[in-house]
Specification:
7 strands, three-stranded antiparallel β-sheet, mainly alpha
Length: 322
């Protein structure tokens, strides 16, 4: 019997080695020694040793049923990067779109500047100074245009309907264009390759608006459509980049929110206190833009719009070189 037990033990060890080798086929000599390697998403990963089955021999008196013998399993899979794969990954990162993180503070400051700009453009168009027939039409908001277009249709005044419908379409087209350039915006993360061209286009639109108003001496209402398109671009860009915290052109909704949040604060609910401050600053900035636009437009007429065109251009260039 003393010779049989070593033989049985040797047979058990041989069975265990055969099972492990069948579950883990040998890798090439170029691979790492030790546990087997698999490739997942172009990255080699070490796989844990598999469970091996062995025959557990009972002590003298007979054989016991087979049981699972668990070999040690690492808790974490380790990446085994390869030089070629790392270089490819680095190359992919280098070719990724350029983006700039936008803090809440910077978003508010930039929003106030752009809100003032929108108020300035809106004031120039709404003052009637640029129009030969004293047409007063907002460019940064189209709430009134919706109702006026409906009234024009109801009264049979097709000219009124067409004019207001074009204003609505122009503003919407600006937002559409901004969305086409940046279809997957990330809040508080500026995709330079998308946002910079949007502001560049807005600059060209306002420049064209100034030129049309000057050359036609206010008889061609296209200057209003061009200005509305630029404001639509601006409002869309600022809205999506700040999760609607900064809406820099259309202020009907903001005015309603200011009243709502003020009522909440007065009753002790301060959950929207920050938004109340931000919206109040944006509203004040928009008002200041309209206030300044009257004096400037009265002094230099359509050339006053060139200041807004220059601001859009400055923003576009600043993003490119940032």
């Amino acid at each position: 019997m003393m010779f049989i037990r070593p033989l049985l033990l040797g047979a058990a060890i041989a069975l265990l080695a055969a099972d492990v080798q069948a579950a883990n086929p040998p890798v090439s000599s170029s691979s790492r020694s030790g546990p087997s390697c698999v490739v997942v998403n172009n990255v080699r990963k070490l796989t844990p040793p598999v469970f091996a089955r062995s025959a557990a021999f009972a002590r003298r008196g007979g054989d016991a049923p087979e049981e699972e013998v668990a070999l040690p399993v690492p808790e974490v899979l380790h990446d085994v990067p390869e030089n070629t794969e790392l270089s490819a990954e680095e190359e992919s990162k280098s070719n990724s779109p350029k983006s700039i993180a936008l803090s809440t503070k910077h978003a508010i400051v930039a929003g106030c500047i752009l809100a003032c700009n929108a108020g300035y453009i809106n004031g120039a168009c709404l003052s009637g100074i640029l129009s030969a027939d004293n047409t007063k039409q907002a460019a940064a908001a189209v709430t009134g245009a919706w109702t006026n277009s409906a009234l024009g249709m109801a009264s049979g005044n097709t000219q009124q309907f067409t004019f207001n419908a074009k204003c609505i379409g122009s503003y919407c087209s600006g937002s559409l264009l901004a969305s086409l350039l940046n279809p997957n915006p990330v809040p508080f993360d500026i995709d330079v390759n998308a946002v910079s061209p949007a502001f560049l286009i807005a600059s060209l639109l306002v420049y064209a608006s100034s030129s049309v108003a000057k050359k036609s001496e206010g008889t061609n209402k296209a200057y209003i459509y061009l200005a509305a398109t630029a404001c639509g671009i601006q409002n869309s860009v600022t809205s999506v980049l700040t999760s609607n915290m900064v809406r820099s052109a259309h202020f009907s909704g903001i005015t309603s929110d200011i009243g709502t949040f003020l009522g909440q604060v007065l009753r002790g609910n301060n959950i929207n206190a920050l938004k109340l401050k931000v919206f109040s600053l944006l509203g004040l900035s928009f008002w200041m833009g309209g206030y300044v636009s009257f004096s400037v437009t009265k002094a230099v007429a359509s050339s006053g719009l060139l200041f807004s065109s220059a601001l859009f251009l400055l923003v576009a260039l600043a993003l490119m070189i940032a």
